[in-house]
């Protein structure tokens, strides 16, 4: 009998889930500092600021297994940044991050004002081959080679 592909539900983050989602960053990066940074960004979604991020979570059988965020760039109102594309280690390479990215990109493509999407990554070939992002500038972050990447929408 053929195994059914795993299904992941993508939906907006709820304020009551901030701590759970921040813990995913701690586990994925093996560093509590990342969980603290993520928590600050996650809480910003529920602030009164005029410019705040939006986050989606991925669920598998009711458990949150990943998250990703986006917001308008400070550079221009037609440029958006994607960040915190983060998945629990045991759910990586199962399509969770790809589904989160597709959800955000589809949402941004529907907004006729959006021209450009940017992100930074230590896995540039993944974003280039799966979504068409172009590598623009290499830099070092916490001892890792990273790239600034862009996608015209």
Spatial gap, N to C terminus? 41 Å
What class, by secondary structure content?
alpha+beta
Provide the residue-averaged pLDDT.
92
Strand order of the largest sheet: 1-2-3-4-5-7-6
Largest sheet composition: 7 strands, mixed
As a percent range, the share of strand residues is 25-35%
Written description of the protein model:
With 153 residues, this protein is an alpha+beta fold. 31% of the residues lie in helices and 35% in strands. It is built from 4 helices and 7 strands; from the N terminus they run E-H-H-E-E-E-H-E-H-E-E. Strands 1-2-3-4-5-7-6 form a 7-stranded mixed beta sheet, sandwiched between helices. Helix 1 (18-29) runs antiparallel to helix 2 (32-44). It is globular and about 35 Å long. The termini are far apart. The mean pLDDT is 92.
């Amino acid at each position: 009998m053929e195994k059914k592909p795993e299904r992941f539900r993508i939906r907006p983050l709820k304020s009551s889930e901030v701590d759970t989602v921040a813990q995913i960053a701690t586990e994925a990066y093996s560093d509590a500092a990342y969980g603290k940074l993520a928590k600050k960004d996650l809480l910003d979604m529920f602030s009164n600021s005029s410019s705040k991020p939006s986050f989606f979570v991925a669920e598998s059988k009711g458990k949150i297994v990943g998250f990703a965020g986006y917001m308008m760039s400070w550079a221009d109102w037609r440029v958006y940044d994607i960040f915190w594309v983060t998945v629990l280690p045991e759910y990586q390479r199962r399509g969770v991050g790809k589904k989160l990215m597709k959800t955000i990109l589809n949402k941004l493509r529907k907004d006729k004002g959006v021209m450009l999407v940017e992100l930074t990554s230590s896995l540039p070939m993944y974003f280039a081959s799966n979504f068409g992002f172009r590598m623009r500038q290499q830099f070092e972050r916490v001892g890792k080679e990273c790239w600034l990447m862009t996608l015209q929408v």
